[in-house]
Design brief:
With 132 residues, this protein is α+β, with helices and mostly antiparallel strands. The protein contains three helices and five strands; from the N terminus they run βααββαββ. A five-stranded antiparallel β-sheet has the order 1-2-3-5-4, with helices on one face. The two termini are 21 Å apart. 26% of the residues are buried.
């Protein structure tokens, strides 16, 4: 039997409501697509997409649209990417125990098999993550 692959793309407004919407969307899609193949990936994917969308909303200067790409397969592999119109690449901050923020990319780095940033010709970027 060949592996089945699922994918979806959606645009979200860059607002404070987008992280929650992205979490719900990722959870619903992964559960609908891949039971039982993707059950273990749901919580990790929800956390990662929440961090990435929050960063994009907080730091993308254009205030426009975020583009979410989600792919998954029967092996449990999940790939997601968030694109925005800002050319400013995310950077992991040095943290102290008193730091109030800046942990998002550290969390993503620990949970992801791989992650990175690509720029596009229109001046924006995509932050992508491969889980498992």
């Amino acid at each position: 039997m060949a592996d089945t692959e699922w994918w979806a793309e959606i645009d979200l407004p860059a607002t404070v409501h987008s992280p929650g919407a992205a979490r719900r969307l990722v959870e619903e899609l992964l559960l609908a697509w891949g039971r039982p193949y993707l059950d273990d990936a749901v919580e990790v994917a929800r956390l990662v997409v929440s961090e990435l969308v929050t960063n994009s909303v907080r730091h993308a200067s254009d205030g426009g649209v975020l583009h979410l790409l989600l792919r998954a397969d029967q092996s449990g592999g999940v790939y997601l990417a968030i694109s925005d119109g800002s050319a400013v690449a995310p950077a992991m901050r040095d943290l102290t125990s008193d730091s109030e923020g800046g942990r998002g990319l550290h969390i993503v780095d620990k949970l992801a098999a791989r992650w990175g940033v690509t720029t596009d010709t229109a001046g924006g970027k995509s932050i992508w993550v491969q889980l498992s």
